[in-house]
Design a protein that fits this description.
2 copies of one chain form a homodimer.
Chain A: E1 6-9, E2 22-27, H1 38-47, E3 51-58, E4 67-74, E5 78-79, E6 82-83, E7 98-104, E8 107-112, E9 118-123, E10 127-131, E11 136-141, E12 148-155, H2 163-168, E13 172-177, E14 180-185
Chain lengths: 190, 190
């Protein structure tokens, strides 16, 4: 069977790809231990296991030279003062990068290296972000009403290491402050 | 020095990246031997060495795991009945793919494998094209007035093999027909 080129579109405003091989839904329960305010988390979860973010993936062979791509949608909301966010991860093959193209909404990408370097970049529509190799990354939706929607692409052999972030957390948090989002040190970082 | 994440934008309608490391200009003289109508080519070139296409590149280390990206702009025009196009190339590391995101204009991506498989995909704004590993690719602007503008990303170790296409050409051409662009066999394919 010939491995043919293919096209797809991202019909706005939803930006759900016209071709989808896998749809991931991550609910509040999947982010246990990640939000700073554990009391607010437990209270919110006891009320409803809310949908926090979704990923639409286009599958390719997971080998070097191929690229994986898809759409990430982080819904608006907060746990205490902390905005809804993705689990965040390192790539299992640490020396692999990722490109994000922000299509809709407002938010941040929180990033860090194993050596403790940190970076937080604002995402607004039309902005392209390059996450170099070695940087763990988590997207955060800071809009009150609108989803944060990004198109992403990364080397197909990268893999995902979620465990490191689950154990340690990120060094930086994004919280709602009086004058908008605030980037603060994570007091629970291990 | 820390290898920091970075962002850039593609201000429309030009879509020239707000961060650029290299700007390539390809003129008619750089496409010698590629257009089907050699008489029309020579006549056009004797008149003016027209700018056919431009590439704005963002540099990264050219190693596996990194991604190279940029903007390709093919200007409107024809040589005889054949639309302005890029030189087209295989990747030197044949088993590497490429993603194109069409931002503006109308055109086609003409593709083929070393084994002789061919594919021609239409490009319109909002369409994303996946060029699998092994497929040579050439973009063609079929709009009469507007540039064909695409954002591209590919594995940074891919490299470019222009020589094979310079010698053999592509198996398919896109010519202006009575009712719009026509995809035809290349009579000069070697």
């Amino acid at each position: 069977m010939i491995d043919l080129p293919f096209t797809f579109t991202l019909p706005m405003p939803q930006a759900i790809p016209s071709r989808v091989d896998n749809h991931i839904e991550r609910r509040l329960s999947a982010l246990r231990g990640q939000f700073s305010d554990q009391e607010a988390y437990n209270k919110k979860l006891s009320n409803e296991d809310l949908l926090i973010y979704e990923v639409y993936e286009i599958k390719r062979p997971e080998v070097a030279g191929e690229l994986l791509m898809g759409i990430s949608i982080v819904h608006p909301g907060k746990v205490g003062r902390e905005f809804f966010m993705t689990k965040g991860h390192f790539h299992s093959v640490l020396d692999t990068s990722e490109i994000y193209y922000c299509l809709r909404g407002e938010g941040y990408m929180v990033m860090e290296t194993p050596e403790g370097d940190t970076s937080v970049e604002a995402l607004t529509p039309g902005k392209i972000l390059y996450v170099p190799p070695r940087w763990a990354h988590r997207s955060i939706c800071t809009s009150r009403l609108e989803d944060l929607v990004t198109f992403f692409a990364y080397p197909a052999n990268a893999g995902h290491d979620y465990g490191t972030i689950e154990r340690k957390g990120f060094r930086k948090l994004v919280l709602e402050g009086v004058n908008g989002p605030e980037i603060v040190d994570n007091p629970r970082y291990q």
